[in-house]
Amino acid sequence: DQQVKQNSPSLSVQEGRISILNCDYTNSMFDYFLWYKKYPAEGPTFLISISSIKDKNEDGRFTVFLNKSAKHLSLHIVPSQPGDSAVYFCAASGLGNTPLVFGKGTRLSVIA
Amino acid sequence: DSGVTQTPKHLITATGQRVTLRCSPRSGDLSVYWYQQSLDQGLQFLIQYYNGEERAKGNILERFSAQQFPDLHSELNLSSLELGDSALYFCASSPSERPNTGELFFGEGSRLTVL
Q1: Cross-chain Cβ contact B42/A94 below 8 Å
Q2: Chain A residues closer than 8 Å to B46 by CB
Q3: pLDDT (tens digit, 0 to 9) for every residue of chain B, 115 residues total?
Q4: Which of A90, A104, A68 is nearest to A23 (CA)?
Q5: Which residues does residue B19 pair with via DSSP β-bridges, in sequence order?
Q6: What does each C-alpha distance from A87 to A65, A103, B17 come to in angstroms?
Q7: Which partner from A31, B30, B85, B87 sits 20 to 30 angstroms from B9, CA to CA?
Q8: Reduced to 3 states, what is the DSSP secondary structure of residue B84?
Q9: Read out DSSP for A73-87?
Q10: How many CB atoms lie within 10 A of CB B58?
């Protein structure tokens, strides 16, 4: 059973527009959430994170929103650039000695 | 460059064989994690070591084993290989003992193809 779900396998956005990537989770014990970005032939790299005590975290063009009641988080990229084209993984972790649980990823294509 | 080194980058082998994947963590990181990414799947956590000791275990098959050596590099051993073991195997490191804090630094992965 997938605890972290990214229901959109792919997303295509025009350069300059907003990209919104969504992630849902089922485990209410998750209290820390991260987004990773992965380019082809490279490992995932950390992008941004959010703790469950917050509902928003911003870093430049990237903002993550957390809706705990809906068990939903989203990553907003504004404005989108062609270099943002990559696979984005949502990840979550909880208390104790539990490892990060990753979603299947969403492939973002930013079209110039 | 994350600072995490994985070898080999690509490996092709036959069913029933055994392979060893190697990982050198970032300088100073004591934790090493292994993840498996199969086709159309997310990153599946296999196992974590911290300073030579196993810290957390995921859905790692009994045919798979891992260890972390005194110099902190880690090896993932996959034996009696099956076609379904074909995947990208990532190693990641972090300075933290707890697997659920902070970011992980991933290597480029080792792509295993079992024919």
Answers
A1: no
A2: none
A3: 889 999 999 999 999 999 999 999 999 999 999 999 998 788 999 999 999 999 889 989 999 999 999 999 999 999 999 999 999 999 999 987 776 666 899 999 999 999 9
A4: A90
A5: B78
A6: 19, 11, 32
A7: B30
A8: helix
A9: EEEEESS--GGG-EE
A10: 17
Which of B77, B35, B36, B31 minimizes the C-alpha distance to B54? B31
Interface of B with A in 37-96 (CB under 8 A): 40-45, 48, 55-56, 58, 90, 92
Backbone angles phi, psi at A93, to 5 degrees: -145, 160
Query: How many CA atoms lie less than 13 Å away from B87 in the CB half-sphere?
Result: 21
Question: Strand, coil or helix: what is B35?
Answer: strand
Both tokens of B83, joined, read 């076609």
Considering only CB atoms, B33 lies closest to which of A36, A41, A99, namely A99
CB distance B50 to B97 below 8 Å: yes
**How long a stretch of residues is chain A?**
112
